[in-house]
Write a structure and sequence with these properties.
Layout: H1 2-12, E1 32-37, H2 46-49, H3 53-61, E2 64-67, H4 78-89, E3 95-99, H5 102-106, E4 115-124, E5 128-137, H6 144-158, E6 163-167, E7 175-178, E8 181-183, H7 196-210, E9 214-215, H8 217-220, E10 234-236, E11 240-244, H9 246-260, E12 269-276, H10 281-293, E13 299-301, E14 321-323, H11 329-342, E15 345-348, H12 350-356, E16 371-372
Helix pairs in contact: 3-9, 6-7, 10-11
Length: 373
């Protein structure tokens, strides 16, 4: 009788309120973090699981989550999630965490290759042209590695100043959601003869191929649904050992939290404000004072520019020099400075910007590198 009572209590646990321990101040506190992925990330899982790993992480590390994971999605659908993120939040976020790959395994997506190879000429010592073996990324949309290259190219081009972190898929056991949706456990290869381990390994490899951190959640969370002793970490011991329940999600969150403490939540972003030196002296003094109150600085120069446009903070990138031509520079400069500060930018003079990039003084051609607003 006692044995059955204990079993009953264990399977009752997912319905009990479980909270995560706050880890105190960290570099993630106050940040905005986007989550892209599949059903384990999907916000709709909250209705079935009570909490999801990103809920717990937000509580533990103090950030605001933006969640775009969708049940069933694969690597080639991550770009669409990112596009929705931009549509709703622009660039007003700090980091992206991508948790995907298990549906590519279940969907039998061929693995493919990271590169294709040929022989090309290149300039070498001498100088002289030499023929050498050459590689180029494969963007084959029919393979997992090709799709991963397409996804990473988009993310790296679209978010060059954001932190991007990938997670490896966790272990998976039997799941039966309907007569037409039965998923064998990971001891069975898919129709391509590949195991989930092959997709886990591919996700690991993108760390070096694309210069993004990869957290091996497959190993560090410790969840192993193929053993009955771990069944209570999953939604249904008989029909769903694919989706972690609340205790399983909490375990994932703890494993991730301590890993995330070792990574930057964002990277330094710096740009410069520049105004016409022909502005009246009083206006210049007010500009310097008002921007100083916002923690910003600026330059004044006579630049051969006449274009005028409304500035869009989301268009600006690290290293830009923004030449503001507004007829009312004080009000617009302060508003733009506040918006850029929220996006994590440091605003300085052109001289300061070049100095932090290793120049002793402004190059003669610096004015040709400004963006006009």
């Amino acid at each position: 009788m006692k044995r059955y009572l204990i079993t009953f209590l264990i399977f009752l646990l997912p319905a009990v309120g479980i909270s995560a321990q706050t880890l105190g101040h960290s570099q993630w506190e106050g940040r905005k973090v986007a989550f892209l992925g599949d059903s384990i990330t999907d916000a709709r899982q909250v209705e079935k699981t009570n909490n999801v790993y990103w809920n717990f992480l937000a509580e533990m590390l103090g950030f605001e989550p933006y969640v775009y994971g969708i049940s069933g999605h694969r690597m080639n659908q991550i770009q669409g999630q990112a596009e929705k993120l931009i549509a709703e939040h622009g660039m007003d976020f700090d980091a992206i965490i991508v948790f995907v790959g298990t549906n590519d395994y279940n969907g039998s997506i061929p693995m493919g290759e990271w590169y294709t190879f040929d022989v090309r000429e290149t300039l070498d010592d001498g100088p002289a042209m030499q023929r050498r073996k050459h590689r180029q990324m494969s963007f084959d949309p029919e393979t997992f590695k090709g799709r991963t290259n397409v996804t990473l190219r988009y993310l790296k081009q679209t978010f060059p100043d954001k932190q991007i972190i990938f997670l490896t898929p966790i272990h998976r056991a039997f799941a039966m959601f309907s007569d037409r949706n039965v998923q064998p456990d990971e001891s069975f290869a898919n129709d391509c003869g590949l195991f989930v381990d092959d997709y886990v390994q591919a996700i690991k490899e993108i760390a070096n191929i694309w210069a993004v951190p990869v957290i091996d959640l497959n190993s560090i969370c410790g969840l192993y649904p193929l053993l009955d002793e771990h069944a209570h970490y999953f939604r249904n011991a008989e029909k769903d050992r694919l989706h972690p329940n609340t205790p399983g999600q909490l375990r994932m969150a703890y494993a991730l939290a301590y890993q995330l403490l070792a990574y930057p939540s964002c990277f330094p972003k710096q740009l410069a404000f520049c105004f016409s030196s022909s502005l009246p002296s009083k206006t210049r003094t007010k500009l310097v004072s008002a921007l100083k109150d916002e923690g910003a600085n600026c330059s004044f120069a006579d630049l051969p520019l006449s274009q005028e446009a409304a500035p869009q903070a989301s268009q600006l990138r690290d290293g830009d020099i923004v030449y503001l031509l507004s007829s009312n520079p004080l009000e617009e400069a302060v508003a733009l400075a506040r918006e850029l500060k929220q996006l994590g930018f440091s605003i300085m003079s052109a001289e300061e910007l070049y100095k932090v990039r290793g120049f002793d003084s402004l190059p003669e051609d610096w004015s040709s590198k400004t963006n006009v607003y």
